[in-house]
Amino acid sequence: MLNLIDVFFVCIVVYLVLRWNFGSHWDFGDKIPGYNGMPIVGFWYQYFSVKFEDAYANFLEIAKPFDSVFKIWWGLNLILFIRKPEDIKILLNADESYDKPKKMYKTFFNRGLFVSSGEKNRLYRKTMSIILDSKAMQTYIPTINIKMKNFLKSFDEKLKENGDEMDISKHTLDFALIAILSSMFGCEDFNEDERLKFLQDVEELKKHESSISDFVEIIETGVEKNINKVESTDKKFYPPLEQIYEITKLINHFELKDEISTIVISGSQKTGKVIAATILMLAMNPNKQEKVIDELVTIFNGKSDQIMDERTLNRMKYLEMVVKETIRLLPPIPQISRQIRKDIELADLQIPAGVIVSFFPQIIHTDKKYWGDDADEFIPERFSDTNFSKIHPYAYIPFSNGERSCIGDRYAWNVIKTFLSQFLMRYRVTTKLKFAELKLYSLFTLNIKQGFMVNIEKR
Ligand code: HEM
């Protein structure tokens, strides 16, 4: 049995070990305003004392009193939250803050591009950008168009079965998944139930990791089978696979699996949510919806069922402004973080290595200092070239920015515009939901507790 003196000595030893490892963070943290929480566990107790779905709103609330920087202790990790665009610019571009905090990001991506650090990440980025460049895009767009036409055919049936009010995100996520599987990986292996289960598992984060991994394994097996065919024949195959084949010369089997997982999950979740959120915002703003339709009618000139190329998609300027305004108010990635690897000067502080620095895009996107008094309103016109040129480039960061910004944004834009232009030309959307009443919560991506509920009728 331990007596009191033993307990005292154990406490002293534990304290000295912690002091040795975290002392510089404790001393630094003492100078920063914010929340200490309880010793050792820090702010965790606060997190677990609110309902999971209220945690995001709760965080936005506790951030309100701080103008520039505040801290929380997350267990033994010190996290600083920043909110000035000029500080975000430094964070997203400095070599000292290139890495992401692995513990926060590791859920599905293991060693892939999303989580990897340093030189390895730079190599992955260069490698993966081959399948997301403009040449690759030309091969994807026709497939995405065909999938959209199939989607519309089956959606008419679903409307008849389910009535006209529905959570549209279920359908847009499935479409985004189909688009990425077929256009990039030439993969048609999954039926609707399997796709929906995968999307549900990803949404619920860690709970069913093995089923997520099995899904990716099937895609990867298909990719490797096709790569073998590429190797054994001179005949040209599905073009993206030839590019992936080039990539496999640089990375191994496990790395390829992690990259597939990164691309499939990033591509389907974020893109699908953005499409659903835009439909919801247009349902809340019928006059903006009609402006989108006016633009589309002019562009299509009576031929909306034609295969669209990137040039046609680029002409959809008002639709683009609507999507940009949607992701200003509802950024799909709710939090962006970096772990400082070498001491850095940021936000007028000398931040020591190991500290995590984080920000919430939604806080910056709705800060009246940068967006004006109407920052909470849905006004796509603020993204006209003239109006947007007055906004600080780091006050708008839905795709992040700097060296580790999103590498899939161009692909995402093509899927988003293909879907929305075809869908909106065919259906009118309305909703009972009001923006101010939406309850937002954060899982892998930003979510709405009430669902993306819209009423849909044929035009
Ligand atoms: C509208 C859709 C999308 C949005 C809003 C979005 C947003 C973002 C954001 C904010 C980041 C930075 C995250 C961070 O620094 O913590 C990111 C990174 C990334 N995105 Fe996207 N993304 C979208 C679509 C896609 C698509 C379609 C793909 C792939 C096909 C993709 C692949 C990636 C990858 C690989 C990274 C990690 C880059 C790195 O860490 O070096 N994203 N995305």
From TrEMBL:
A GO cellular-component term linked to this record: endoplasmic reticulum membrane
The protein's name: CLUMA_CG012051, isoform A
Domain of life (superkingdom): Eukaryota
Cofactors (names): heme
PROSITE patterns from the UniProt entry: CYTOCHROME_P450
InterPro entries in UniProt: Cyt_P450, Cyt_P450_CS, Cyt_P450_E_grp-IV, Cyt_P450_sf, Cytochrome_P450_Monoox
Annotated residues for binding of heme: 406
Annotated GO MF terms: heme binding; iron ion binding; monooxygenase activity; oxidoreductase activity, acting on paired donors, with incorporation or reduction of molecular oxygen
Protein keywords: Heme, Iron, Metal-binding, Monooxygenase, Oxidoreductase
One Pfam family cited in the UniProt record for this chain: p450
Organism: Clunio marinus
Signal peptide: none
